[in-house]
Amino acid sequence: MKEILEYFFRLLLRVVFFLTTNAKKRETTNYKGCNILVYAYFGIGNMVFFTPSLVCLRQHFPDSKITLQIGNETGAEEVVAGAGVVDEIIEFNIKNSFWNSLLNAIRRMRDYDVIIAGYHARFPCILLQTAFSIASLKIGHVSGGGWESAYDFLYNFPVKVKEGEHEGMQYLRLLEGLGINGDWEKDKKKTFVYCSNEAKKELELFLKEHAILEVEKIICFQVGTSPTMRWKQWPLENFRDVIKRVSKNSGIKVVLVGAPNEREIIEKAVHGIEGVVITAGRISLSATNALIGKSCLVICNDSGLAKCAIAQGVKTVTIWGPTDFSRVGTWLDGHIDIRSNLDCIPCFKLNGMVEVEQCQRDYKCLKATTPEYVVNTIEEVLNIRMN
């Protein structure tokens, strides 16, 4: 049944695409001052990797209106909101008002001269929007590097996905359709996380409320992960052992960061440990990023907040599991990556999560890392001896 529905959906897209292709286009060869729509249907970490592309886009098209369309409840927009790299952020409300959001989005498609779609933009609503668009330039990732798509025909400037290429560079290559030739080795330094004054004030109030002093070293832990990617999570009992050791040291304040839906896991990990502070569900993502910026160290799973810490230049110890490090790994120097050398890594790839969700080794790549090893790593990074 699923295959039949997908077949008819592709047929619908082709019909719409044919009709709009033969309709009057917003023809232009000069995109200075044009309206650009960027689909950003991905998580926090992906948005961090996308920031150099947004910076380059703004630098080359200062007079253009750049609109970012996001999915609801990802939090990714908080990475860039207020930074000046985009003019408008539109949320597509998939859960609560799908059809209204879709109709409004399709109506807006007449306003855009350029569409930019990365490989995350494969939701039916986005594909329909793209098919209905009369933009003269539609840039999008197409099949390649082990990643397959049935919708390559939607783009008149196709950009093939490359195996083993860092995600940041995959995004930068989308800009080639606008004459921008990115270089990840140079442009990766443009990754950023924007923290507004409001977020900093929010954090300041939180720190006062919990009596966290300026003289204390803040060490942030993220013990949770996305509910759909629990296989990225280092065992909670291991995190608990490390947190117990670290929290006993005077002058160090342990803060547990994460999304509201990670709060239950966090409370389980630190139950009975005195002196720790939990921010999950209490402060915004922007305020969390401001907190990370004040920290001396972040210890975490492979996560979006790990990317936020690295982008801010905060020392980060990331415990990796089955993810493809060549594609989304640490991109700046000065950080510690704890990785297994098992020959089955990576089993989480662009073409899906089947292998990783059916792991035959009980996620040994994560469980092989011991609490003692992580504590020793923290001691080396901070040049201190734990109690």
Distance linking N and C termini: 60 Å
Which structural class should the secondary elements be placed in? alpha/beta
* Biggest beta sheet attributes: 6 strands, parallel
- How much of the residues is beta strand, in percent? 5-15%
Rg computed from alpha carbons, rounded to a whole number of angstroms:
22 Å
Spatial sequence of strands, sheet with the most strands: 3-2-1-4-5-6
Tell me the number of helical segments per DSSP (H or I, 4 or more residues long).
15
What are the secondary-structure elements, in order, as H or E?
HEHEEHEHEEHHHEHEHEHEHEHEHHH
What does this protein structure show overall?
By secondary structure, this protein is α/β, with parallel strands linked by helices. The protein has two domains: 2-190, Rossmann fold (3-Layer(aba) Sandwich), CATH 3.40.50; 197-382, Rossmann fold (3-Layer(aba) Sandwich). It is built from 15 helices and twelve strands.
